[in-house]
Amino acid sequence: MKKLIELLEKLSSCPGPPGGEEPVARLIRQHLEPRCQINRDGLGSLIATKEGTRKKPRLMLTAHMDEVGFMLQNITDGGYLRLQPLGGWIANHLPGQRLHIHGSKGPVEGIVASVPPHFKKEPKSELKVEDLLVDVGAASKEEVASLGLNLGDLITPSSQFAIYNEKLLANKGWDDRVGCAVLVAAMKKLNKHPNTVVAAATVQEEIGSRGAVTAVEVTKPQAAIVLEGPPADDVPGVAKDSPQGALGRGCQIRLYDPSTIIHRSFWRWVTELAQKHKIAHQLAVRQSGATDARAIHLAQGGIPTVVLGVPVRHAHSHSGLIHLDDFRATLDLAMAILKNLDNKTLTSLLPE
């Protein structure tokens, strides 16, 4: 488990917003290259192939490398930075938070400007990210340029890895670095399997699953397993009824979100597999959100796809929490699928 925690720490600490996933790709490649054939598609997704006892079925195991971040949109005359969001943020959560701007001279830390209560005469309407300014200690455009910062530079949260209460891990970027960690761990553990597994670490999921669109064309799978870090709903006031993504209750098996009705026979077979192997799991019917499954399940005339997730508390923020037991359950279930999904089983799951 120590090595898995080290993997989780390194992956979540890597900077990698949409369009800037290369540090994450390099790290994943270091782990998989001795064991797999590695390729890249034209958009930057990393594809690792591992043949088993049979060439078919081809199974796509996928997780996205990008995290929510920003792009430097403009610089004011007074030396403040404006932000272009890359992915979903709640602007009201950002004032006072620190960011890393990845410029030509290395990362520069800045603080999202926060108006003290002393200067607030009346409450204002909800903020927009476009309204916010970032203070890097510069007093002019020229001083900003001297720091190596320019329009288009990518920006990520400044966060620090920590372990809470032995089993909860805190850091930025769990959506979807925890999925990337499951992907890496599964491919390293995978030995004898009755199929060919093509692991795709995709780019630009947070801005429309763009990497999945190109990666699925390259991998040409017969079935797909999407590994995610979905938002946990076990915080008071979030779930109307019982939570469907609680920390410590196992792998989340998604049945639905607005972008994808998950292949019914596939998820039922996966659930039965989890029950057979006594793998903790929880079913989720999501009323919002989307994953790379939205692009994958529509490709090549339709691909049976299932979504497995490690719930992330406080997702899309500077610091999220995951539970090690959920990570282990998701890894165990992914491995069970890869070791049991042969041609005969897959054919039985398809429409006649």
Features:
single chain; 352 residues; alpha+beta; Aminopeptidase; Elongation Factor Tu (Ef-tu), domain 3; 2 domains; six-stranded antiparallel beta barrel; globular
Task: Tell me what the structure shows.
It is a single chain. The chain is α+β, with helices and mostly antiparallel strands and 352 residues long. It has two domains: 244 residues, Aminopeptidase (3-Layer(aba) Sandwich); 88 residues, Peptidase M42, domain 2 (Elongation Factor Tu (Ef-tu), domain 3), CATH 2.40.30.40. Helices cover 27% and strands 26% of the residues. The protein contains nine helices and 18 strands. The strands form three sheets. Strands 1, 2, 3, 12, 13, 14, 15, 16 and 17 form a nine-stranded mixed sheet that branches. Strands 4-5-8-7-6-9 form a six-stranded antiparallel β-barrel. Strand 14 and strand 15 form a beta hairpin. Helix 1 packs across helix 4 and helix 4 packs across helix 8. It is globular. The relative contact order is 0.19. The model has no long low-confidence stretch (mean pLDDT 95).
What order do the helices and strands come in, and which of them pair?
Blueprint (H helix, E strand, L loop, with lengths): L1 H12 L8 H11 L4 E4 L5 E6 L6 E7 L4 E7 L5 E6 L11 E6 L2 E7 L20 E3 L5 H6 L7 E4 L4 E3 L3 E4 L2 H16 L6 E7 L7 H10 L3 E6 L22 E7 L2 E2 L2 H13 L4 E5 L7 H4 L8 E5 L10 E4 H17 L2 H7 L3
Helix pairs in contact: 1-4, 4-8
